[in-house]
Amino acid sequence: MSAKTLIKNGMIIDGTGNQRFTADILVEDKKIVKIGTVADEGDAEVIDATGLVVAPGFIDTHSHSDLRILIEPEVAPKVRQGITTEVLGQDGISMAPLPVEYISPWRKNLAGLDGDSDEINWEFKNTEGYLKMIEEVKPGLNECYLVPHGNIRMEAIGLENRLPNDEELQKMRDITRREMEAGAVGLSTGLIYMPCAYSESKEIIEMCKVVAEYDGIFVIHQRSEADTILDSMEEVIKIGRESGVKIHYSHFKVCGKKNWDKIDKVIELLEKAKKEGIRVSFDQYPYVAGSTMLGVILPPWVHDGGTDKVIERLADHELRKKMVYDIEHGIPGWDNFVEFAGLDQIFVTSVKTKKNEDAIGLSLIQLGELRGKDPYEATFDLLLEEENAVGMVDFYGTEEHVQLFMKRPEMNACTDGLLGGKPHPRVFGAFPRILGKYVREDNTFSLEEAIYKMTKKPATTFNIVNRGELREGYFADITIFNPETVIDKGTFTEPAQYPEGIEYVMINGSLTVSGGKHTGNRSGVVLRKKGTDVI
């Protein structure tokens, strides 16, 4: 491809929220060199964008491509929906740091979220080693990394269900600093996932104090998105208050019909935090169903000691009875997915072995019918046979609530897409769905505001500089789409469908999607924290 690209006659929506205007864009040597009227240049490749919107490349602030980027580095489901940058290391459980002695149990713990593979060398040890591996495979899009709380905890104290002593807490601070120095953009946790769930606020506050020194961000799957969400939010706000860190709630929502009356108070807490001067934001995917590892339906005590212990307990029929009792009766403070979604609204999306591929796409009720067993027993058998490496989709909310949170000023878009098996359709279509359904069809907000929430807003939130906006001198991460046709195509039964209307995607000045097709180009880079900026 020519070193120059000229985008002609496009409807420019620059990411700032300002009104659209018609102009040309000249790209040269990875950057935008001119926006305005540009005469044809004989050595430039020309894209006629008449009738199309030219926007900054979309930024996915909650991604689970952590392992996939090393195996299939083009990550086509993301790029073909217009995403040019994604943030890895979510939910407190990811690739690095990973001490060699913990590789085996950690791979099992990670498998339900990010999958597993024998194709890579798992001895990368830390964030520096992991990010170098990404660079070596030449990623298809730009990658940022959050250092995960669970990985830090594992290196410092192992996988046991206990609190750290003073020496171990200092070690957790030291590991956090080491990984921030290696380029991590912040810290993540997932307080429903092990071993993160074993922690108390003090431990998190101490790590966040380190992150705050770098003006990094704390990204949290909070302890509850259901019955105790108000207490959970108060805990997160306390972490922000006492550490000074920027708070970013992952996949913000309220789960379960009986909890919908808490939504007004949830919003009051967001406003309260801002009045205190605590920096608060959140991301959201545009669907009424979520997706995670099926093992989260098990009571917390089942996970004590890691995945190997989960497998042992699932093989014990007496303990299975206790699991069913706790699921049916609840445990205070525990987000009980079966309670707020129901066995009929939790669906298997991925498995590790061919033996159980017939379970993919089935609800837990249907799984029981297929196996001729009680649905709990069939589910426990599946988790046991797959060593807990099972993905799921769960239905939890309403369109009204999706739109309510979508319009909030704290919101930016994300996919939160698990890439294995029969995934949640958000893997392929979250961003086009916002543009097609919520902007064009439902008029939830303007196209300018939607683009802002996909580009400049997340770039500012994560301190990503020189991206997220169409501006002279910025890197040429550009998405060009048809505003009349853009839409997601995936469904919950057939999710792996690319969207319509995403015509061109440029990453660092290189066309990665042209005419709606992937070009095979991989021109992404690893973005690292340097000082307070991510570059």
From TrEMBL:
The segment(s) forming the Amidohydrolase domain are 45-212, 422-511
GO molecular function terms noted in the UniProt entry: hydrolase activity, acting on carbon-nitrogen (but not peptide) bonds, in linear amides
> InterPro entries from the xrefs?
Amidohydro_3 (IPR013108), D-aminoacylase_insert_dom_sf (IPR023100), Metal-dep_hydrolase_composite (IPR011059), Metal_Hydrolase (IPR032466), Metallo-dep_Hydrolases_sf (IPR050378)
Q: SUPFAM superfamilies from the entry?
A: Composite domain of metallo-dependent hydrolases, Metallo-dependent hydrolases
Q: What is this protein called?
A: D-aminoacylase
Organism name? Lachnoclostridium phytofermentans
